[in-house]
Amino acid sequence: MLEASNNNELPTIPGKRYFTIGEVSELCGVKSHVLRYWEQEFTQLKPVKRRGNRRYYQRHDVILIRQIRSLLYDQGYTIGGARLKLTGEEVADDNNQSQQIVRQMRTELEELLVLFKN
Q: DSSP per residue over the chain, as a string?
């Protein structure tokens, strides 16, 4: 799901257990107010809250935020579409798309093979 090519410009995630909202903001290239908004929109995103309602994100939260960022900013999904994609309700559509791409590639490769044989 997470496209590595889309996140090449993002820094690697350090081997820490918890990250502050500021650190996650830098790691994911998203402002902190956007992270707080995404918490309301994506139920999967639930950072640990401690004293004074401070948020502490774990590694899986950072990976999820990068997925959300990729869906919204790189792949052009709406928030509703990204929510559906993350919950897996779009799996059938993705399979159909993948099958079409494979068929198209196969046809093109067969055409190239014919050209090379001549």
A: ---GGGGTTSPPPPS-S-EEHHHHHHHHT--HHHHHHHHHH-TT---EEEGGGEEEE-HHHHHHHHHHHIIIIIS---HHHHHHHHHTTTHHHHHHHHHHHHHHHHHHHHHHHHHHH-
Q: Where is average pLDDT lowest: 49-53, 66-70, 76-80, 99-103? A: 99-103
CB–CB of 32/25 below 8 Å?
yes
**CATH 1.10.1660.10 is the classification of domain 4-87:** yes
Q: What's the whole-model pTM score? A: 0.69
